[in-house]
Amino acid sequence: MTGSPAAGTAARHAAPSSYSDMLLRFDPESMTVRAGIRELISYGWLPERLAGNPEDPSLQARSAAHYAWIREASGESSRREVAVSATERFGPFTFEIQGRIDLLDEDGDEATITEVKTVTGFDPDRDPVMEYLPFFLQLHFYFLAFSRSGAASGLRERLVLLDMGVSPRRVRILDVDPADPRIASAWMDLLRGVSEDLEREVRIREAQRKGLETFTFPWEDMRPGQGDMMEASASAVEEGSCALIEAPTGTGKTAAVLSGALPEVLARRLTLFFLTAKDTHKKIVRETLERMTAGGLPVRAIFITARERICLAGNRRCRMEDCRYAQHFGSGVRDNDLPGRLLAAGIIDPAVLLVEAASAVVCPFELSLLLSLYCDVVVCDYNYAFDPHVFLRRFFADPATAASCALLIDEAANLVPRSREYYSPGMRESTLKALKPLPKEMRSFSRLLTPWRKLFSSLERQAVDEGLPEFELPRTLELPVMEDSWRRAADKALGRIPDDLIEMMFAINDFARLRDQADSRFHLLYRREKGDAIVQWFCTDASSFLGERMGACRSTTAFSATLKPQDHFRQALGMPDWTAMLRTPYPFPRENLGVWIDARVDTRYRSRQRTLPTLVARIAGIYATSPGTYLVFFPSYEYMSMAAGPLAERGLPVMVQRPGMSPPERTEFLGRIEQKDALVLTVSGGVFAEGVDLRAPARKGAIVVGPCLPSPDLRTRLLQAGYEDDGCDGFFTAMVIPGMNRVIQAAGRLIRGPEDRGVLVLMDRRFSQEPFWPLMPEHWLRDGSMPLLGEGMTELAGFWERGGRRDPVEGAGRVPAGP
Fold it and tell me: What is the pLDDT of residue 482?
């Protein structure tokens, strides 16, 4: 990613540029690059200043100003958005470039090309060519393409700059000399720099081709089922299809699907996305990729961390217009050769990236997105593929680039509820309250916020009158929308809008979008939650949105330990009917895991206080049979807190998960678990119940308190009704399946290897009843049934007396478990 020396000085006052569309389509066989002119310039010349989210109101104001000027300047002989193309050659490479001229005015054999750009302030004393070089390069291409078409003998160019930093807006019109040698030289420098990048890419791809010839599974031993998972993920990429894999916890799903998919991805010059909901899942990804590299397969990988977690300015919301790490991004990256230095490591360490970004005074998040364009593997959250607000447009907005992406979706069952959140925008009354009073220069927004304040006041009175904490609103309810007056106010306040107001404007935009497309999947709700009032469009089914993204990509492999029933999850994930479905066997000796149902405890909400002494006594009794480290999973923090005190009073070594623990606090908590015996109280569905490979040497058992059903609130009831409308058992689908998924994931923390031994106790009589037991994993069963734990718990003592092996016939009673 190179350019002429002049590029580093460009655009000091120019509009924030975006490099969100920098993927170049390159055919190594014909050595041909196919790209739009903006993509080519963005790739070869990094923007000096960065832009924010394209949905940001200030950027929308820029777009509106851009198109308004073009409309006003258009005459009878004008044409807008005129498509042009041209072919350029540099060395062994052919560049097939396309673009659209903003405004073309033709008069006989004469023509004028006009390009319109928004900026924030311009200095009339500075050389405009050096100040706005990327803009002049774009015009230069339009000149080359149109002149070669022979459509006009006389051709003029002009650049129109709209200053968004003042009101009323200033306009500067620059006539451009087509023969300016500085522009022609910069154009050749652009082609040269891109060609040098492509030559390096060709060399790396050749090294990867040789590495693939001797590639083998990167771990010493292959566990049962891993070969089948490798084949399924490889076939998905090879055939351009989808696969859904259910495999027990500890099978080695991550290593298997990576080892299967990556060789096919590299052979086809695709980008592999490993999508995961939790940072804790990234460790095994890194270890697997490092082993591949050590084995002779050079892999370039980036781990993308959420913007707010690595913001060097410490901002809650990104404000690029006044962030020092966004003002000199292009020169900071170029002058410090950050792509070359960081990519040399192959697998980019997030900590090293953060240090390098701070040293170069550039945004680490934007640097990671830039580097992702060079990488073979991108490891990131689901958001960056599926969230309509933050998905990586450079990869997924264009169908041509999306088709070059292969997806691996880790713990895919978690994507179902997460995807519903993506399409369930909400407005909080606390946001409104934080905006009162507004700063003096923001007073124009006060009138615009009044309708929302009145709406919340009205709904609060309705909630009090009806005695309801939540209720559904009429679909026809007219919600205040963000009209042109909002955009004009945002335009005038450019760069000074408070974070809470920006959050609200985003929410109003989302409400406006849904107003026209909301169907039976969307419900308008009001509820009170933790002292706040919320108005929300709630989506009960986002499968079509997920399916649209997956359909645009080359392939999708979704995998998890909790995908039962598989056909339900295939549909909920939006995967097609022809998806290949695989279920792998349990990889470890079954006798090493003893599983019992303790039917003496009733964990239903209405019974918790009454049965708490029994629960505490049973947990203490389990620990006493063989002291060590036990994980106790509760359905809620409230229930866990009820039990924590009485357990500690018995002298047990209690450790309790706290809500909202930071990443360093989680790491410290895990470290303590792995250092000494403990009775660890945690929450099912939380960070310590999924994707954590606990290495406590004295790990003895796991206790799951209750089937972990979702709260039966209005949203859950709407989900249930939606499933029933589709002909499904609503309670089973909306309540039992997600509850049992949490149980299975939590229990999976216990046995992580073939030498591990432990006991699993499911505390609640409901585990022995329909509809829960049909979802039990097959390896928990003994001849198709499951034993009940006796009052004296002698079964647990016997398990440990036998060296951690279960007796296939013991138990105080047995219940059928599965059809």
Answer: 66
